[in-house]
Amino acid sequence: MMYLKKPLWSQGKPEPDAKTTTTTTTAAADCGDAVEELVDSLQQQRVYREVTLALRTGLRDARAEFSFLRVRGLRNILKFLRSVAESDSTIDLFNRTQSIPQLQVVPVLFEHCLRETGDYENENRVRDLNHIFGVEPLKLTSPATDAEVALALRVLEGCCLLHPQSTGLAHQHNAIPDQSERETLKFT
Asked: Where are the residues of the annotated region Disordered (predicted)?
């Protein structure tokens, strides 16, 4: 059996010996600082890659045509948001990723998971026989289930709590009614 030594950078800064001179101690300390900076940089890059990968795979499933795939994607995004909320650095990283259009969560929620059922009926309707006999197949999208809508609302809530600009994005999709709309909703 082979025993591996721990990497030097995992042990922290080297302790100075009484035998070493001051020049070697400062050189060793400078080397230790450089190694720590390199390790921190590599760690930050790894976390960024993991965050973007988790968002990309969750959003890919949330854009799917079938409800069970969208539910799976929403569960993964919700799990991801829970893990992001554990540290301030990952919250900051999540906030930075939300400025990238391909990684924004809120627009995907409203375009795919929180659509009105009437939108699905109009999209899935065969208008003429060219759709059937044409080269391009008709794209059928299953409507959102109650479980999907509930998960999408939890993801939306998590996004709004972690990223304040997500509230503005939700407002752009008319998720938050204006004051006049609220008053009419009360009386209906």
From this structure: 1-25
Of 154, 183, 171, give the one whose Cα is nearest residue 62.
154
89 occurs within a structural domain: yes
Instruction: Tally the domains of the chain.
Output: 1
- The Cα 150–Cα 82 span in angstroms is 16
Q: Which DSSP state fits 142?
A: P
Rounded-to-integer distance, Cα 104 and Cα 63, Å: 12
Q: 112 near 81, Cβ under 8 Å?
A: no
Query: Locate tokens 């890059």: which residue?
Result: 45
pTM for this entry: 0.67
Q: Which domain holds residue 63?
A: 41-179
Contact between 135 and 93 under an 8 Å Cβ cutoff? The reply is no
pLDDT digits (tens, 9 = 90+) for 38-48: 888 898 898 88
Structure confidence by residue, pLDDT tens digits, 51-93: 999 999 999 999 999 999 999 999 999 999 999 998 898 899 9
CB < 8 Å & 24+ apart, contacts of 68-74: 70/112, 70/113, 70/144, 70/148, 71/145, 71/147, 71/148, 71/151, 74/113, 74/148, 74/151, 74/152, 74/155
Answer yes or no: are the C-beta atoms of 139 and 65 closer than 8 Å: yes
